Amino acid sequence: xxxxxxxxxxxxxxxxxxxxxxxxxxxxxxxxxxxxxxxxxxxxxxxxxxxxxxxxxxxxxxxxxxxxxxxxxxxxxxxxxxxxxxxxxxxxxxxxxxxxxxxxxxxxxxxxxxxxxxxxxxxxxxxxxxxxxxxxxxxxxxxxxxxxxxxxxxxxxxxxxxxxxxxxxxxxxxxxxxxxxxxxxxxxxxxxxxxxxxxxxxxxxxxxxxxxxxxxxxxxxxxxxxxxxxxxxxxxxxxxxxxxxxxxxxxxxxxxxxxxxxxxxxxxxxxxxxxxxxxxxxxxxxxxxxxxxxxxxxxxxxxxxxxxxxxxx
Length: 313
Ligand code: F6P
Ligand code: MN
Prior knowledge:
By secondary structure, the protein is of the alpha+beta class.
């Protein structure tokens, strides 16, 4: 398919891109509205309040005031959209009904991913999943769109509505301008990003990592899922893993809020995502707070992960 930017040979903003790519009207409006919240969240980040809010989320993590305000910004934006049925966020214990019940889409959010990096001024992000129907009934492959926003030296937004994965940069006028269209990962990359402590890794995972090391992969791990995935996306390959570890066999990252959206974006860019044996997108969640190990990135690294992980007892 010819790139839209080639066809128009001019400035392409997010709305124009979605329209030209044939994204369905409501989905287009929803993605636009969420992208707009990126501006409000970044304005909050710039207020530089790094204080704790004095609350914990359901995962036992201390919430920053910023975690809570990012969540409130998203929820209130979606409340007035008219086409969102439910909203669920890592920062709230329950699914929130925000529509009449007959809307097509439900939205999940990790409003401020990597919030432990706020005080160090490393890049942080927002992760969004858009699912068809009610969240309690999310099955295999029910995610229809996903996005993430990276708050770094630039604010960038990557989205997919099932028609490729595309990156936009927020310019000074507040427009999301197309920067990378139809991102396609190479079959094999050269960077690896490793969560968990080496001393807690399970033997088959350790063997896999040692294999990557003998192949000469370079270490890239920021401690933020969004910037780490973004690096694989923009460098067109590599692998991120947060594996099962001793004492936490389900890993750390959350299936509905973090993993499925990133798996969707990476698969739309020709990559893969697995828990070691099953594709992340094919896992039917049993609960909202479900965690899962993950291996995500270019084809070669993920096929190798499957090979090593299938050796486990
Ligand atoms: O959201 C959880 C998260 O902060 C991710 O952004 C990141 O990839 C991971 O946890 C980092 O975990 P750890 O501190 O164990 O390396
Ligand atoms: Mn997160």
